[in-house]
Amino acid sequence: MFHRLMKNVATVYHKTGEDGTGRGIYDRFVLKNTRFERKESVRPTVAGLLPYNSFKLFVKAGKNDKPVYVDKAAYTAMTEAARKLCWTVAEGDVITLGETAFSLDDNSVDDMKEDCEIFTVNSVLKDSVADTGIIEISGRGRVFYT
Q1: Tens digit of pLDDT for each residue in 69-120?
Q2: Would you say the C-alpha torsion 134, 139, 145, 146 has a positive or negative sign?
């Protein structure tokens, strides 16, 4: 029944390193049929109230799904050809709601802070108890655009 609620698209940017100028290098994964839940709130600071949003992203990642989900350690150990058949997400990665393409055409993921709302991954939990094949990704976000 939960699968019927999974109608969102999200883009994951998995950081794989940095280039010579210190800008991040990311692998981009567009995930369809996901469930994106957002909680909007504010956080008090010395400068005043700042928006502080959190999210949970539920992704179906069973054994027969394509591309296949693998954890960060397995993804890092794979060859470039094998990586094209898989996707991964880890703490510190960036997620946007919808399909975005900031890592293509020499654009930096860092540039997207000016154009859209981004979320940073805090935790990745794979459901191994009920074996439903659902991965829960959660984290925080801050609105950077005006």
Answers
A1: 888 999 999 998 998 889 999 998 989 888 887 755 555 666 676 677 788 8
A2: positive
Nearest to 92 by CA among 6, 10, 17, 8: 17
Query: Which CATH number belongs to the domain containing residue 78 in this structure?
Result: 2.40.10
* CA nearest neighbour of 108 among 11, 24, 22, 30: 24
> Based on the structure, what is the number of domains in the chain?
1
> What is the C-alpha separation between 100 and 108, in angstroms, rounded?
12
Strand, helix or coil at 122? strand
Range of the domain at 36: 2-142
pTM for the structure as a whole: 0.81
* Contact criterion met (CB below 8 Å) for 34 and 59: yes
